Amino acid sequence: MDLRGKKVTLHDMCLRDGMHSKRHQISIDEMIAVSTALDEAGVPLIEVTHGDGLGGGSVNYGFPAHSDEEYLKAVIPRMKNARVSALLLPGIGTVDELKMARDCGVNTLRVATHCTEADVAEQHIGLSRELGLDTVGFLMMAHMVEPEKILEQARLMESYGANCVYVTDSAGYMLPDDVRARVGLLRRELKPETEVGFHGHHNLGLGVANSMTAVDAGATRIDGSAAGLGAGAGNTPLEIFAAVMDRMGVETGVDIFKLMDVAEDYIVPMMDEMVRVDRESLTLGYAGVYSSFLLFAKRAEQKYGISARDVLVELGRRGTVGGQEDMIEDVALDMVKEREKADELAAGGGA
Amino acid sequence: MKIRAALIGSGNIGTDLMAKALRSEWIEPVWMVGIDPDSDGLAKARDAGLKTTAEGVDGLLPHLEEDNIQVAFDATSAYVHADNARKLQERGVLMIDLTPAAIGPFCVPPVNLKDHVGKQAMNVNMVTCGGQATVPMVAAVGRVQAVEYGEIIATVASKSAGPGTRKNIDEFTRTTARAVREVGGADKGKAIIILNPADPPLIMRDTIHCITAEEPDQEAITDSVHRMVHEVQKYVPGYRLKNGPVFDGRRVSMFMEVEGLGDYLPKYAGNLDIMTAAALRTAEMFAQEIDKGTFVPEPSTPAVAETA
User: Fold this and answer.
1) C-alpha–C-alpha distance, residues B81 and B86, integer Å
2) Which chain B residues contact residue A118 at CB under 8 A?
3) Torsion sign (Cα): A38, A43, A49, A50
4) What fold characterizes domain A279-348?
């Protein structure tokens, strides 16, 4: 793979996707410490919000330690070079939160939909563009449909005003060929001035390899997070990816050693538990399940005494999409009922 | 005596509503109003013996008196509804609004329908599909004890979410959250909608989370929830409590599934079915009161819509 001479914009996810693995409890002090250290390391773009985006604070996804507005207002004024992005999922957040984020000074607004539902983002993408923001369409769970469908949906987002469209591997399910097929098709068929991005999860240990493939196929924005702090087995570990890009002669503008230090000195000590490919996060990648379901499934295991892995596999079988966290307890309760029924049958077997 | 009604809008909702109204003991659908002479809905209406016009509400106005139309269901759009409401209400027609216009007060039949009849409301709004499916559950908890916070998550099959909903999905979340407060009685409300493209399409499902102000009375809430489910089942037989109520500290959660009757819309589109069924239920209640003489439709002026 020859990537020499290419340029890539790295986008850090610690303070947004990382909120999932922190149960949305990152403190304001941690937000400031991490963002200023990332800025110092030359990371050009940093995402800050609730894990489920603007307005994500809820029983369903978890209430954050602070509001999106408090986080954004704490981080944005302290940035020397880095710009800040916010995520918005239509159906969860609204244009009210979009305007709030703009007023706080975000540079980039990313509007995320399931990979077949781009048309719910028309209002938000249109407004974001109208407000002069760098506007990104974010097609989640992109492994679930064929590349042609992704292209159709990306074209919609482009037509609403997105100047960049992402192939988002929310489940960490894609293999490098899946990434190449999708990113490559978008690069060939979208307008030349529309950027293509890739957002990976490390559930199959392929975050770095998939992101390299995305760059080779024409992506110019790559998401990752220092030490991989993110949902599931985390995002593409950004310091590793930056080092690989450097080795391959790709310009990222990031200070590799400083970024390693952020990962080691700030992020790893923040982790409630090690973000890694374990039995459950591997199941996400293997079964194609939305990465932020991980901790909810583990909680259901504790509460109901059923296997988190079984819950995740069942969620995959039912075709759940991003945002359906409420299905986890529902599925767990179904499994408890089935178990009780089986126990009764076993107990009544001799009667 | 049946009360004679006009159906405005010949799309999925209007056509499904017609199928249900044709079975009603209290409502007689007489007119269907569309804007496309070739629409499937208008053809179905003609086959069913209804009078039709493709000229919009203006095509209906000259016939209101001779056909004694007392109730109109509006399944068009928020924008068109404002105009329809003005033209029909000044002629004394009662409006059942299925659009997100929300000019009139919200109506969720098992919770507050009787209040509207008592107040002589001439325009009632049916909230949203998510609202019809979830607000009864918030109210079921709320009638036992104070609900500090109500949150609902509505998941619908992609195929059952029409272009109107998609173009303005914020309207869904805002309107539903408002109904969780205003009709459900929660101090704070939040609504989330998820579209799922699975094929075969999934049946509408709804999760309702309530945070009660004090420790929840589990027995009383469970009983109240089951009674409320039974009330909704009177007009939506496929309204089911799948799991719950689950209690976790002060959190009370209900997991629902809403299967439609499959009249014009497929069974998975319980979200659309619960709207048409609730609208018909509302009209029937008014019809009974009109029949008894306790509700007298009068010419009125619609309020100005809060949202355009």
Assistant:
1) 8
2) none
3) negative
4) Helicase, Ruva Protein; domain 3 (1.10.8)
Element (H, E) at B204: strand B204-212
Strand partners, B4: B28, B69
CA distance, residue B67 to nearest chain A CA (Å): 41
Among A116, A120, A324, the residue with its CB nearest the CB of B155 is A324
A201 is catalytic: no
Q: Which residue of A has its CA nearest to B254?
A: A330
Residue B28: which H helix or E strand, with range? strand B27-33
Q: Which two tokens stand for residue A37?
A: 């250290």
- Contact (Cβ atoms closer than 8 angstroms) between residue B92 and residue B72: no
pLDDT at residue B305, rounded to an integer: 52
Residue A81, Cβ neighbours under 10 Å: how many?
A: 10
CB contact (8 A) between residue B255 and residue A59: no
Phi, psi of B210 (to 5 degrees): -120, 140
Class of domain A9-270: alpha beta
CA distance to partner chain B, nearest, from residue A325 (Å): 10
Structural domains present in chain B = 3-126+273-292 (3.40.50.720), 129-268 (3.30.360.10)
pLDDT (tens digit per residue) in B70-122:
999 999 988 899 999 999 999 999 999 999 888 899 999 999 988 888 888 89
The whole-number pLDDT of residue B151 equals 98
Per-residue confidence (pLDDT) for residue A157, from 0 to 100: 98
Whether residue A249 lies within 8 A of chain B, CB to CB, comes out as: no
pTM of the model: 0.95
Instruction: Name which of A158, A168, A66 is nearest A121 in CA terms.
Output: A158
Q: What is the mean pLDDT of residues A172-184?
A: 98
Binned at pLDDT 50, 70 and 90, residue B165 comes out as confident
